[in-house]
Amino acid sequence: MTGPGPRWAYSASPTELDAVASRSLVVLARHVPARQVWLLTEAEGPLCVRSLEDDIVVQRSALLHSAWLALADTRRSQVQEAITCDNHPLDRLPTIASSLPPACCHGCTKALRRLVG
Question: Which top-level group of life is the source organism from (predicted)?
């Protein structure tokens, strides 16, 4: 498909857009402590759906959103869920050329270390 606008916009699925919106909820939760649990719970479903996709075309996005899901889990002090979330997605690293998902995984690892002391 061609036309005005960025090329990536034509391949954005509802699943991808939901996951991107959920990343915003994770960020917002950090700034609105009174609604943190609700915001992180709302973010969890769409992030989980995207992170579990095995389609080779969305591996980068799946890994990226797995890191966001793990970050949301660490913010809710759910260490075991955050660790479990990262097990499968890390297998994807060798297939991804972008530096963004590995950087997000590194950030998640730092958050886990702070949480468990």
Answer: Bacteria
Residue with the larger pLDDT of the pair 72 and 8: 72
pLDDT digits (tens, 9 = 90+) for 54-110: 777 777 788 888 888 888 888 887 777 766 665 566 666 666 666 655 566 666 666
Helix and strand element counts for the chain (H, E) = 5, 0
Residue 17 lies in a domain: yes
CB atoms near residue 49 (< 10 Å):
16
Number of domains in the chain: 1
Q: What six digits make up the tokens of 57?
A: 């075309």
In a domain, 2, yes or no: no
The predicted model scores a pTM of: 0.71
- Alpha-carbon span 91 to 88, nearest angstrom: 6
Find out whether 98 and 58 touch, Cβ atoms under 8 Å: no
